[in-house]
Write a structure and sequence with these properties.
By secondary structure, the protein is mainly β. The chain contains 2 helices and 9 strands, in the order αββββαβββββ.
Amino acid sequence: MAHVRRWEPFGAELDRWFGGGGPPSFLRFGADLATDVYEEDDTVVVEMHAPDIDPSEIDVSIEGDYLRVSGSREESDEEEKRDYYRKEIRRGSFERIIPLPQAVDRDKASAEYENGCLVVMLPKAVGVEAGKVKVEVKG
């Protein structure tokens, strides 16, 4: 019969890591924000799996040759009171910095959030100066 152990945020996770079980879940934060980057016609498309996040809590910006996506996924009071055996769904602040495969026209970038997926459309450009621009997320 399998035994169920209560989840301990740091001690058990670190013991598991040093015992050869892989990195602790708190170091994998962002792994649930899986990202695909691909080309579609004259556009670089970045799709990010970002479930249960309010679009108004997502900050998307282009900084030089990188796309920066940050925000927060808040935990409700009800979730804080639970006695977890395992907790892998991360809450709190997050940030992903994604290298772009080529220059993009930052001023024409757009982003949409629908059904737990953030899609950032970045039209390709040639000879664009590096800089920073914030992209509005429509949701």
